[in-house]
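Quick question about two entries, pasted in order.
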Amino acid sequence: MAERRVRATGKDSDHDITKLCGDVGSWGSVSKSQAINEIDRGDYTYYVEEAPGPRAIVRVVGSAPNKYLRTDADSSSKNNLDNLPDC
């Protein structure tokens, strides 16, 4: 399984995550639904790693049709998807 580091997120007017974004020139961006499908199939592991701090894996939570993305809870708020810059 390949890994993709998430650097930013797209959000709608309700601040719900709509897409995940990587570094310019790396993997670009994927929609929320595409990321959910790729994680569920085991194609990719998405993660956030904001220094200093541990790596936070992006997980799919909920059940269809209400699946969404979130990072595991830890001691750092810097690696929460909601707190990443917009892309």
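Here is the second entry:
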Amino acid sequence: MPYEYRIAEGRLGDEPTVTVSAPDGAVRVVLALRGATLLSWQVARGAAGQLTELPELTELTELPELTELVDGYRGEAELLSQDGVRAGLLAPFSNRVADGRYHHGGRGHDLLPGRVGDRTIYHGFAREAPFRLIGATTTADSARLLLRSTSIRPDRYPGYPFALDLDVEYTIGRRELGIEIRATNVGETTAPYASGWHPYFTLSRPVDDLVLQIPAHTLIRTDATLIPLRGKEALLPLDRCPGMDFRTPRRLGDAVIDACFADLTPGPDGRTETVLSDPATGAELRLWQHGGYLHVFTGDTLARDRRASIALEPVEVPTDAYNRPEQANALSLEPGRQREFRFGVTYRPSTH
């Protein structure tokens, strides 16, 4: 009988969590049910084998050394504050909606009714929504968890009178973490919808020392409030912006980035791969996604540990898509229809 991945319920303060661990201790993942949020992804530094027989727990006398690969929330207070949106799942919109207002279906909507002054809103509602674990499968090589939220309803969030069911499926392997977000419109009207992910990755070194490669050909230009310029004015070929061109691997150094990259080139398998690497060790993280855009944030304004990690964010659409007519078709989710967005990350450990 194979010794399978283990799943255990726990708590982060009063917040429920789920911990997934490999049979030999070479992988450990912790999720908060609030927002289906990834809190920790730890993987063995060295080579990991595969257990095919069920050993006694007392035989596991030496656990492998693990390395943390995401800079997630470290306690209940951080999770509740949502500062930095650490590993937040972004839906039904990602990044900002200009002035908290948009038009859809011939009507104007205000996501911040009554708010004066700062009307910044970003990253949707899913990151704070209650999820529940509705299914799990385990093998000797991986675990798959399915989490669901039914909290997005017309009377729940101001300015968003639509009904969505959200499913988030995590697949946890030896060196890879895969995520699929699926939204089903369970309402009676077409809803604007897009998703993404906001993870901060670490290779145990400051951002300045790491090397980044992004297979993108276009930068989305923004104004001072990080809202993209109108129409084609937002599209800047990276040939004309060498300081932001990472098609060839480049050391990040003191670069300050909070920007969206477009026209990503997929590989033969249809996945686009963005590579973060540590030249001192050869360790790599390969963020992959099926379609969409990539937002990069070097963490310069974080309340904790600025520039200790970097946000590499796969997103379906660019910032303020709700106010961009050219994104209307990409956003529209008709009643009874479902849409999914798939992405994940692969770890390649140190080579020396």
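Reply: Residues 76-81 form the longest helix (6 residues). The chain has two helices and 26 strands. Hope that helps.
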